[in-house]
């Protein structure tokens, strides 16, 4: 086997090398996003075959994110110590086993355990490249690379909609997971051959030992990190929860779509997200050169998502995939927080900073996915119809989004003007 290139000490990657490394990581992230979002498309089939209710669906989808969240803190330490290449290869081995276990599962508990295992396995697919990019790319290019990695994730989610619906009659849902296991294994070969080996950071100076310490204390104490936590947990986590699960059941249960129409709607939502992240990648370097910081863009743009969610709740059956696409698109302002957190902390701690923030995001995804399912079931106490229970659950979610934004806004405005603007 050809030896992977060694990371040159402190040097940025050249343009050609950076593109090749980006594409190699992007292939793995594409498959991780596909396996993440596939439950939304498969939810009608799984509900019938295994007699799952809304709470079960929420827990099954959220189980992926629970497994994902469980690995984030050790993942950050391992990334800073061992580098993206070695860590992602180890984790993707677990993802392959998780997909195989899902294909073989015969009960809800088996599906849930396999889903958690898969979530653990793919949990390095975004953090590993972003950790590498923190050293290998300039700050403006990091913002672009982050947006285009998310664009790749949206492409994976697009592939989890209509293409999955078309393949189902030929492979069944079990066959799809066998295919995913093989494709993830294929992406591992590219990473092993192409991604640079990791250069250990220089020993910390006595004056500033914290970035190279093994713990997370200095990250949790960082004011910028804490400022971004509420919107990361609720708003970012909620956007992913809707995109990967609840938009699909809403279209079927509230808007009256058939499963095929819902798959087409999810295709439209994810295609909209793909285009949005592509656009963010194009304009982010220009915004950075103009001094428009991510927190200011979030403060200006994120409230538009609250307006859209209010319209969805009020319209009920009249709110189809187009409004859910608009909600997800207007929520993407919060995606700027992820690379901003990495840039706000030392490069030697990039893995820990990104993983700690990702823990908040995916803890939020799990909480929102499961929480909405529990709310839909709990609102039965009022004797509401299923459609009204969905609307009530989304209204409560919207209120949580507003409070999280206000917490962010208050922390942002309380910081010194030179840092906050």
Helix count from the secondary structure assignment = 18
Order of helices and strands: HHHHHHHHHHHHHHHHHH
The proportion of strand residues reads: under 5%
* Class per helix and strand makeup: mainly alpha
Radius of gyration: 21 Å
> Low-confidence spans: pLDDT under 50, at least 5 residues?
1-9, 203-210
**What would the principal axes of the Cα set say about the shape?**
globular
Q: Topology of this protein?
A:
Elements: H1 15-50, H2 54-70, H3 72-82, H4 84-104, H5 108-121, H6 127-136, H7 139-159, H8 162-194, H9 217-220, H10 223-253, H11 259-289, H12 294-301, H13 303-315, H14 321-331, H15 337-344, H16 350-378, H17 386-414, H18 417-420
Key terms for this structure?
421 residues, mainly alpha, 79% helix, 0% strand, disordered N terminus
Describe the overall structure:
- By secondary structure, this protein is mainly α.
- The protein has helices at 15-50, 54-70, 72-82, 84-104, 108-121, 127-136, 139-159, 162-194, 217-220, 223-253, 259-289, 294-301, 303-315, 321-331, 337-344, 350-378, 386-414, 417-420.
- The longest helix is centred in the N-terminal third of the chain and has 36 residues, at 15-50.
- The chain is globular and about 60 Å long.
Give a brief description.
The protein has 421 residues and is an all-alpha fold.
């Amino acid at each position: 086997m050809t030896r992977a290139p060694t990371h040159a000490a402190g040097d940025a990657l050249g343009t050609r090398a950076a593109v090749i490394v980006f594409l190699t990581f992007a292939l793995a992230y594409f498959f991780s996003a596909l396996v993440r979002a596939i439950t939304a498309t498969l939810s009608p089939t799984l509900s019938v075959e295994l007699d799952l209710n809304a709470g079960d669906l929420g827990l099954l989808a959220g189980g992926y994110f629970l497994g994902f969240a469980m690995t984030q803190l050790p993942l950050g330490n391992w990334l800073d110590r061992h580098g993206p290449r070695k860590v992602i290869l180890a984790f993707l081995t677990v993802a392959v086993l998780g997909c195989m276990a899902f294909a073989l599962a015969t009960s809800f508990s088996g599906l849930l355990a396999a889903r958690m295992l898969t979530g653990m396995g793919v949990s390095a697919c975004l953090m590993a490249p972003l950790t590498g990019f923190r050293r290998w790319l300039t700050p403006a290019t990091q913002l672009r690379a982050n947006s285009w990695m998310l664009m790749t994730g949206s492409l994976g989610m697009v592939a989890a909609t209509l293409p999955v619906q078309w393949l189902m009659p030929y492979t069944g849902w079990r066959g799809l997971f066998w295919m995913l296991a093989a494709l993830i294994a294929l992406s591992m070969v590219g990473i092993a051959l192409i991604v640079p080996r990791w250069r250990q950071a220089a020993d910390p100076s006595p004056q500033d030992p914290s970035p190279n310490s093994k713990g997370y204390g200095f990250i949790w104490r960082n004011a910028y990190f804490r400022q971004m936590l509420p919107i990361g947990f609720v708003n970012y986590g909620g956007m992913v929860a809707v995109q990967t699960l609840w938009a699909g059941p809403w279209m079927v249960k509230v808007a009256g779509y058939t499963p095929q129409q819902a798959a087409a709607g999810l295709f439209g939502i994810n295609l909209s997200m793909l285009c949005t992240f592509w656009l963010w990648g194009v304009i982010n370097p220009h915004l950075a050169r103009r001094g428009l910081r991510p927190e200011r863009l979030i403060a200006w743009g994120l409230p538009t998502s609250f307006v859209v969610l209010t319209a969805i709740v009020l319209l009920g059956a009249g709110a189809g995939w187009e409004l859910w696409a608009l909600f997800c698109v207007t929520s993407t302002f919060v995606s700027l927080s992820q690379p901003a957190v990495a840039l706000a902390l030392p490069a030697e701690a990039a893995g820990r900073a990104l993983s700690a923030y990702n823990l908040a995001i995916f803890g939020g995804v799990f909480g929102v996915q499961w929480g909405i399912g529990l709310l839909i079931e709990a609102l039965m106490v009022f004797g509401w119809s299923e459609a009204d229970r969905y609307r009530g659950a989304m209204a409560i979610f919207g209120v949580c989004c507003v409070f999280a934004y206000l917490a962010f806004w208050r922390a942002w405005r309380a910081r010194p003007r030179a840092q906050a603007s």
